[in-house]
Design brief:
Layout (H helix, E strand, L loop, with lengths): L22 H14 L13 E5 L2 E4 L4 E4 L12 H11 L11 H11 L8 E5 L2 H16 L3 E5 L8 H5 L14 E4 L12 H18 L4 E6 L17 H9 L3 E5 L24 E4 L10 E5 L1 H8 L12 H16 L2 H20 L5 E7 L2 E6 L10 H13 L2 E2 L1 E3 L5 E4 L7 H18 L1
Parallel strand pairs: 3-13, 5-6, 5-7, 7-8, 8-9
Antiparallel strand pairs: 1-2, 2-3, 4-10, 9-10, 11-12, 12-15, 14-15
Helix pairs in contact: 2-9, 3-9, 4-8, 6-7, 10-12, 11-12
């Protein structure tokens, strides 16, 4: 079994390697290295010098067009004209900090909360998913009096100091704090789908008991419902019900991280947790909210926010500013007006089916899983052993990039192809993708 790969090591460019790059790209890499230092990563063995985006397409400085099957940041499509117009108009009218009354942010909050379960009726706005997760941890600790959290063993939830502690796949080399406990992600490929919910719930109960034995009070469990960093394991709808029960029985709060599965990406529901028929205590949101405009938020049960507010305050200068409200409202308008959740459902189902067919003649593709337009393709050395094959996955990603199609990699062994295009990705784009994948698979075999 191959060694675990940290999230920033997946599909990463070697910043000291510039062989084969154009003079312009070499110069940009050099400037990036000299100004940003060693913490700034680039994708692909040949980095992209992008200058323009539209819909599902990205264009580089040489005029080459790339099919974007990776980015969930521009959730409704790169540079969607309705979002661009709304942001530009508001920026030219008013943008200030959040200590003033401004009607559109309440309009946005009401519309967004209207997509949530009735029990979740308050929201706190931030600027990023990392800030959102950080705030959710603060609330959980304040409300429960606990410090301990349970996360899956290759999770990623953000990059603040507190959130890095609950992100075992992050690049941090620091030892895991004693109050953070890990449980296995629901690997439905290697462990099967039978009793997957019972297994995860049992693991959480066991971890909570170990906390108690060490005099650590349990504060909460945080997960994204498709376990994306763990390797994309959405599972069958409903299996998280027992997990929610186990968390509450142990005295903790359930935090749903919707940065990855939220805003219609699963196709089945607006929110990933809603596939499972559960009502979390808090919902963490980020990247897709503003289609590239930095936004985040935590939707929360009002009793929890009241309990937190009784002893603590929270202020975010730009969280919920007027331009953010304009971006967020425009994204909701496009999601609804263009039927993007249904498109995600239909195109995602087609894409998964055709990927299975494309891989049926060989041993490289072990499993194709996902929901909507979030798909994981498990690349293995052979189907019998199901042993992860990171090198083959990297060859496929590079092969797709050479064919002007962009995808990523996920999973603790770096062997799962991550396919996560903008939600306007249609059947015609899927066919282009599939042509490239068939060719890349032949080269990688």
């Amino acid at each position: 079994m191959e060694a675990t790969k940290k999230i920033l090591e997946l599909n990463a460019f070697d910043m000291n390697a510039d062989e084969g790059l154009s003079d312009e790209v070499k110069s940009l890499v050099k400037r990036r290295r000299e100004t940003f230092g060693p913490t700034s990563m680039l994708f692909y063995d040949r980095p992209l010098n992008l200058v323009r985006g539209e819909g599902v397409w990205l264009h580089d400085a040489d005029g080459t067009r790339y099919l974007d099957a990776y980015n969930n940041v521009p959730s409704v499509g790169h540079c969607h004209p309705r979002v661009v117009e709304a942001v530009s108009r508001q920026m030219g009218t008013l943008n200030t900090h959040t200590r003033y009354l401004y009607s559109n942010i309440y309009t946005y909050a009401e519309r967004l909360l209207g997509t949530m379960p009735e029990a979740i009726s308050n929201i706190v706005f931030t600027c990023t998913g990392s800030e959102s997760a950080d705030f959710a941890l603060r609330v959980a600790r304040a409300v429960t009096g606990g410090t301990g959290f349970i996360v899956t063993d290759n999770a990623y939830h953000g990059n603040t100091s507190a959130v890095t502690e609950i992100s075992p796949s992050s690049a941090s080399a620091e030892p895991r704090p004693p109050y953070i406990f890990l449980v296995p992600a629901p690997d439905t490929y290697r462990e099967g789908t039978s009793q997957v919910g019972q297994r995860l719930a049992a693991d959480i109960r066991s971890a909570a008991e170990k906390m108690t034995a060490k005099d650590i009070r349990f504060a909460g469990f945080i997960a994204d419902s498709i376990f994306s960093s763990d390797g994309v394991f959405p599972g069958e709808p409903g299996f998280l019900k027992e997990t929610l029960e186990a968390v509450h029985q142990a005295g903790g709060l359930y935090i749903a991280d919707e940065v990855q599965p939220g805003f219609g990406r699963t196709g089945e529901k607006m929110w990933g947790f809603d596939r499972h028929g559960i009502v979390p205590d808090m919902v963490v949101m980020g990247k897709p909210m503003g289609n590239g405009f930095p936004m985040g938020g935590v939707a929360i049960k009002p009793a929890l926010l009241a309990a937190f507010g009784a002893t603590s305050g929270y202020f975010n200068t730009f969280g919920g500013n007027p331009v953010a409200a304009a971006a967020g409202l425009a994204v909701l308008d496009v999601l609804e007006g263009e039927g993007l959740q249904q498109n995600s459902f239909e195109t995602g189902a087609y894409l998964r089916s055709e990927i299975r067919i494309a891989g049926s003649g060989g041993e490289v593709i072990g499993d194709v899983r996902g929901t909507g337009l979030y798909i994981g393709v498990d690349i293995v050395k052979d189907r019998k052993s199901r042993e992860p094959d990171r090198q083959a996955a990297e060859r496929i990603v590079s092969g797709m990039r050479a064919r002007n199609i962009l995808i990523g990699i996920a999973g603790r062994h770096g062997n799962v192809l991550k396919i996560r295009p903008p939600l306007c990705f249609g059947r015609e784009h899927a066919d282009i993708f599939l042509d490239g994948l068939r060719s890349a698979l032949l080269d990688a075999s």
